[in-house]
Amino acid sequence: MLILHKYEYPGPGRLRGAWWCDKCVALLSAPDVGIGQLFALLRQWTPCTQLQLDTIVMEILKRGAHVDDRDGMTDMTLLHYTAKSGALGNEELACR
């Protein structure tokens, strides 16, 4: 089971990565974390996942998924998740 730390939403002026710890990145990069678990993380759609969308999506792509692969629970593709991020005002991140 993939469990990340609980963090408070970063306040104004805090850097995007200042609250995404090295342990979280190492956990996401672990080879035993599957695509389904990463989709489950995206599905939470918390401020943490919204701000780290590119990291999570890149980890999913590294595992052999494609932008048109679907989350079995929501039927959303990776492209849907990135478009959702862009619609919320993070266009630059969504286009990566």
Characterization of this structure:
The chain has 96 residues and is mostly helical. The protein has a domain at 33-95. The protein has helices at residues 22-29, 35-44, 47-51, 53-62, 78-87, 91-95. Helix 2 (35-44) packs antiparallel against helix 4. Residues 6-16 have low confidence and may be disordered. This is ANK_REP_REGION domain-containing protein.
Task: List the keywords.
50% helix, mainly alpha, single chain, 96 residues
Principal-axis shape: globular
Low-confidence stretches: 6-16
Q: Return the average pLDDT rounded to an integer.
A: 75
Largest sheet: none
> What are the secondary-structure elements, in order, as H or E?
HHHHHH
Using only CA atoms, what is the Rg?
A: 13 Å
Organism: Hymenolepis diminuta
Protein name: ANK_REP_REGION domain-containing protein
Write the layout of secondary structure elements.
Elements: H1 22-29, H2 35-44, H3 47-51, H4 53-62, H5 78-87, H6 91-95
Helix pairs in contact: 2-4
Summarize, please.
The protein is 50% helix and 0% strand. It is mainly alpha-helical.
